[in-house]
């Protein structure tokens, strides 16, 4: 069981976003080594849009917290400031549309987290 399985039974983020977390749950079970474990992820309400309009997903890599917000405009990734989570989501931006689905944005977020996990400066 991974952390996403804890969110699904008592879902409170809006039904449009359930498939996003289901896709996250399925995808993180086949991570490359060195990437965050499935139980290291957290899901919360989005930082700067209505709570029903997106999800904020993050994980810790050493002393750094990485995350992304998936909402109706697209995906923003970056390091998270625990006091203001939407503050630094400016490392990567992908617009929803142009043939992209919410699942595509999940894949882009997880690919970005995996790439960051492989960087030497994350691990010190």
UniProtKB/TrEMBL annotation:
It comes from the Bacteria. This is Uncharacterized protein.
């Amino acid at each position: 069981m991974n952390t996403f399985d804890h969110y699904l039974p008592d879902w409170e983020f809006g039904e449009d976003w359930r498939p996003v977390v289901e896709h996250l749950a399925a995808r993180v079970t086949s991570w490359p080594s060195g990437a965050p474990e499935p139980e290291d992820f957290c899901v919360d309400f989005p930082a700067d849009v209505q709570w029903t309009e997106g999800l904020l997903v993050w994980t810790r890599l050493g002393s750094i917290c990485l995350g992304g917000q998936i909402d109706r405009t697209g995906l923003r990734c970056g390091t998270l400031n625990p006091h203001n989570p939407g503050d630094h989501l400016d490392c990567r931006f992908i617009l929803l549309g142009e043939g992209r689905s919410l699942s595509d944005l999940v894949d882009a977020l997880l690919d970005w987290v995996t790439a960051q996990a492989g960087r030497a400066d994350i691990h010190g």
